[in-house]
C-alpha cells in the first residue's frame, strides 16, 4: 500500500490589523485550535482525486496540468495549489487527497488558507520537494490569487504555518520576506478567553469587494507617492481629495497605530485597553473601510452588551466572524444575547465558541489512515 501522509493546519483569528497585509502594515493574527486535515497518497497516472467531508461535497477529479477556470466549487483551492506548485517548477505525478475540516466554511477563519497550506505541505512532504515555510506560504497564496481569483496578502498563510500555542504573531508585511515575531498572550492566565461569533453571513473574498478595497488603497498610495499606504503620514488624508480614498487611508493609518497599541497592551497585560482597541478597530472597519455588515455589527454590539471588554469583526469582512475578549463565565450570556438579537431579525442562529492560540501546520503520524476509493 502506498504511504499516506497527514497534515493538520489550524485556522486563524486576526486579533487586529485588518486589511493591512497588502498595505505594508503590521498584523497580529493567531492560529486557533480548530483545523483542517489533509491526507495525501501519491499516484503516477497524472490524475488528482479529491474527497471532502464538506456537506454535499462529491469526489472531484482533475488532471495534474489543471488550469484556472477548469475546476469550480470547493475543490478550486485544491486544484489551485496543484497548479501553483507546477507554476513554481514542482509538478506532481498525481495524488489522492482527503480534506477534513473542523473550521466553519466562509466564517473568516481562513479555512481557505488552511486548505491550501495543508495541500501544499502534504504534497511537499509526499514528493520531497524540500520547500521551506515561506515558499509553501507563497504557493498557497498563488493558489488563491492566481487560480481562485482572490488577491489575498500573505498574512493568513504565515499565520497558519507559523502559529504557536499561547502566542499571537506580529507580522511585518512591509519587508520581503515578511518577518514573523511571536507575541506571548496572557489573557487566559488572567481569567479571560477569546470568543468567536460565526455569524453565518456569507463570506467570500472572491466576490469583488475585497479586490475593490485593495485597488482603492493602491490608488491612494500612488496619489501619495508611496510604495505602501501604511507608510503614509498624518497629513495623508488632507492631501487626498477623494473622500473614499481619504476614508480608506484613515483606516489604514489608525489600524496601524492600533496594532502597535495592542502589542503594548498585551505586554503590560492591560486587557481593558486591549478591549478598547479591538472595539475601535471594528468602528473603523465599519465606517472608514466599509467592510462590515449588519450581522457583524449586531454581533459586536451584543458582545459588548454581554460584558465583553472589546469586540470586533475579524477577517476580510462582508460576513464571517466577530471576536470578543470576555470572561469565561460570560460566554453563555454572550451566546444567548447574540442568538436573541439574531432571532429577532429572523437571521440564522450564529455559532459561538471559545478559541485558544495553537501551533501551526504540522505532520501527524497516522499509520491507520485510509483514503477514499
From TrEMBL:
Annotated GO MF terms: galactokinase activity
Sequence ranges assigned to domain GHMP kinase C-terminal in this UniProt record: 265-343
SUPFAM superfamilies: GHMP Kinase, C-terminal domain, Ribosomal protein S5 domain 2-like
GHMP kinase N-terminal domain location: 77-163
Keyword presence, Cell membrane: no
Keywords: ATP-binding, Carbohydrate metabolism, Galactose metabolism, Kinase, Nucleotide-binding, Transferase
Top-level class of the enzyme under EC nomenclature: transferase
Documented EC number(s): 2.7.1.6
Keyword Kinase on entry: yes
Domain Galactokinase N-terminal: 7-40
NCBIfam families: gal_kin (TIGR00131)
UniProt family annotation: Belongs to the GHMP kinase family. GalK subfamily.
Name of the protein: Galactokinase
Gene: galK
